[in-house]
Amino acid sequence: MRLINSLAAALLAVPVTTGATPATLPPLDPAAVAAAVRQAPGGPVLGILATVDGRDGALRVTAGRADVRTDRPVRADGRFRIASITKTFVATTVLQLVAEHRLGLDDPVQRFLPGVLPASYPPIPVRELLQHTSGLYDYGQEIMTTPAQVLRDRWRHRSPRELVDIATAHPLAFPPGTRLAYSNTGYVLLGMVIRAVTAHWWGDEVRTRLLAPLHLTGTTVPGDDPAIPGPHAHGYVVNGDRPELVDLTTYNPSWADAAGDMISSARDLHTFFAALLAGRLLPAALLDQMLTPYPNGTLGGLAGYGLGIMTLRLPPACGGQTLYGHGAGIVGFAGLAFSTRDGQRSFVVSVNTTAFDAEQSPISTLLSINQTVFCG
Question: Which of 209, 278, 293, 327 has minimal Cβ neighbours within 10 Å of its Cβ?
Fold first, then answer.
């Protein structure tokens, strides 16, 4: 999640466009995509898997090492921590509850979670949590912020209330609904709202509503489980006391909670976003709201944000279409998942990495490959 907060800066390299949106993309260039992927390993990027699906074919490319100890290669069917892509699963679950009239987008979170937020806070509608316009302080600025802290606390359980309390020790940064500012705290609160409305843990609702119906057998909601099941690459951190890589593939991900603790595979993410964008998971009116970015602000000046969805606009030379998906960054892993709304082409990429902050972030590299996938 610390890495995903660097996405805003990296997005400055992505062109923004206006005007009409053509119906088609340039043809997929498998050779160009493969070349871009194979150039990615190096520096903080140890290994990479990249997959393309769509009407003009499928592509699976890997490069680099899954494990520095054995030099084992990356597998295209490997699983990985999807970090903030978790937010799209959580948002979809919340919007299904809206469709069932069990909560409303304009209902204040305080209605469902009395006493959790300070009495001095104004009402914060569910919508503002979904689109990062709540003004809530991001608790991620205070925990797991250095390699030393991660190594010290890697097995520690963090409750959702503990994470929210870290955030609410700070005043709101701005009145809800007036600005866009990425905050993981809002999604921890949404997980708590799901429990309040359904009497079930948010992860169980995601499993029941999304993972089981879509047969996403490579996707898990780990809770406190430190392991990544199935084949997977290893993530690392540089130990600040000694110039060595420490394997940080396993740790208790409860500190990410509903903001970013899930694990998945490229296959499953293609399936999930295809179903979501095709209207199989939400009524049309709610899906349109989900995909409509906040009108008064962007991430990094260019990426829009709807209700749990990032939007990127391609330049006119390669179709000008809007891509929908999310970026991901957590200890040991970073990635992207983006697709055209009509399913013409979708892209999922994950790297296992030593990157830990914005200066080391591989997100700009991944966005460059994303550009190659959709623009040739």
Answer: 278
